Amino acid sequence: MAGTVNQTGGDQVDGAPGGWLRRLGAALWPPRCLLCADPGDDGLDLCRACHADLPFNLGACARCALPLATTATAATTCGGCLRRPPPQASARAVFLYAPPLDRLLPRVKFHGDLASARLLAALMARSLARAEPPQALVPLPLHRSRLRRRGYDQALELARPLARALQLPLRDDLLLRRRATAPQSTLDGDDRRRNVRDAFAARVGAALPAHVAVIDDVMTTGATARAAAMALQRAGVARVDVWVCARVA
Known about the structure:
By secondary structure, this protein is α/β, with parallel strands linked by helices. The chain is built from nine helices and six strands; from the N terminus they run αααβααβααβαββαβ. The chain folds into two domains: about 20-55, no CATH class; about 55-245, Rossmann fold (3-Layer(aba) Sandwich). The strands form two sheets. The chain has a four-stranded parallel beta sheet with strand order 1-6-5-2, sandwiched between helices. A two-stranded antiparallel sheet has the order 3-4. The longest helix is centred in the middle third of the chain and has 15 residues, at about 115-130.
C-alpha cells in the first residue's frame, strides 16, 4: 500500500493539506484517554496503560477470525471453516470482545459516540495496514427502519475514518439490507443464520469492485458477515474479506 498509514484517521502526513490544522487541534485539545481520562498517548485518545490492556485478537482463524487455542499463523484455518468454508476469503477481527474494549464499542454501537468510533478506527487501521488492501471498504448497512430509529449506522461510523486512514475508497452505496431483521443478539446460532438469510443485496446498477472488505463492529457467529459476503459475490464481486473491530470468542 502506497504511503504511510495515518494513525488518527485524518490526513496522511503532516505536510499534506490540513496537516497544520491537525497539529493546531492537538495543541489546543490534547488527547485524553476515553477509558480513564488520563492524558492520551501516541496521538490517540487512549493512554499507554489502557492501550496495553486492550484484548488484541492474536492467533485467530484466517477465514472467520475465531480465536484459536494455540498460537496460529496467518494461514491457520479452524475446524469449522475447514468443514464448511465461509464465502469470505478472509476475516480479520482486531480485538476480542472483552474488557476494556467492551466499554468502548457499545458507546459506538448504541450511543453514537463518534470520538470512540474514531479511536477504534485508528486502532483498526494500525492492525489492518498489514492486510492485503481491497479496492473498497463496504460498511455493513442497517435496515432503513432501524437507521431512522437509531439515527446513525455504527459500521459506517467506523468505516469512514478507517477508509481515510488507509486511503481506500468507501463504498456505502454497494450493499443494502433489503428486509428488517431481528437483532442478532437476541438469537442463537441457527436462528441467527435464518434471520439474515437473503437479508442483503447489492444495489442494482452499482459499479462493483473486484475485491472489497465488509466492515462491521462485532462478529459473533459470523452469520451476518456470511450473508453479506454471499450477496456481494452473487452480484459479481470476486473476493470479499471481512474486517471487524471485535470478535466474540
